[in-house]
Design brief:
Largest sheet: 8 strands, mixed
Radius of gyration: 18 Å
Helix content: 25-40%
Number of strands: 10
Shape: globular
Number of domains: 1
Strand content: 15-25%
Order of helices and strands: EHEHEEHEEHHEEEHEHH
Length: 263
């Protein structure tokens, strides 16, 4: 093991997630050679994966429902607490690895930045997308500390909490030490750069492995996006930023919460 780990959460009964997971296992050696895969899953999927040929460097970790008060999607964050990890990627089980994604990851690994953020679709409007994040160095240590604090707080998380957590307190601490690959959405005052490889057709990093008619709408949005969109941070993030800048809470209290992008 070289300390390079890709972390997943696999839970629920929808077969597309397990199918996507198996496809990632099959193409891992071609796209991410030398990387270990860690899959945090519930009992049903743990039993199903035990019947499959997983190959080398694939570890399946059984998690109980609401294990440690952590909701299923947040299980993958537990990999930040694993010893010996040097670089850590978080990915969605229903999104299959691509060489375009790996090219961006390799560019990040060779950079001075400790956080890697990819927004490759107009719908990727969170500062941090939970399924395209990478951390190493100081950012990995910071994320591990934040995850540990959440566990010690014994606060039960709910669906979507991982995205709010990553795009809130974590992003505010790492945004100056982040390489942001995006052709679509950037947050002021980020410095961003396009992904190193051209987009193959309508595919994007984080796209679904098995597309339903309802999900086809996301692909159609690619055609309508002709340029990058710059967004101000959402109000819950702006509040934290202002608090860090002014070190005083009164100006922050003037922020109105009626508008999604309020100042």
């Amino acid at each position: 093991m070289n300390g390079h780990v890709i972390s997943f959460a696999l839970f629920g009964s929808d077969p597309k997630y397990r199918r996507g997971m198996m496809q990632n296992i099959r193409v891992r050696d071609q796209v991410y050679p030398g990387w270990e895969m860690v899959i945090y899953c519930d009992r049903v999927n743990h039993h199903a994966l035990a019947q499959e040929p997983l190959g080398n460097n694939v570890e399946v970790v059984l998690q109980q429902e609401h294990s440690q008060g952590v909701e299923g999607m947040s299980w993958r964050l537990l990999a930040a607490l694993r010893p010996g990890v040097r670089a850590l990627l978080f990915r969605d089980s229903d999104s299959v690895f691509t060489t375009r994604e790996a090219d961006a990851v390799n560019e990040w690994l060779g950079s001075r930045y400790d956080t890697h953020i990819i927004r490759d679709h107009p719908y990727h409007q969170s500062p941090v997308m939970g399924g395209t994040l990478g951390v190493k160095g100081k950012s990995l240590a910071l994320l591990g500390a934040l995850v540990r604090d959440r566990l010690h707080a014994h606060r039960r998380s709910e669906y979507g909490d991982d995205q709010v957590f990553l795009s809130g307190s974590f992003y505010c601490k790492v945004r100056k030490n982040a390489l942001v690959h995006t052709d679509c959405v950037r947050y002021f005052p980020e410095r961003t750069q396009p992904l190193p490889a051209d987009r193959p057709g309508e595919s994007f990093v984080g796209s679904y492995a098995f597309v339903t008619p309802e999900e086809q709408e996301k692909y159609e949005a690619i055609r309508k996006s002709e340029r990058a969109v710059t967004l101000l941070p959402p109000h819950w993030q702006r509040k934290r930023i202002l608090k860090n800048i002014f070190k005083y809470y009164r100006p922050v209290r003037r922020i109105r919460h009626g508008c999604r992008w309020c100042l």
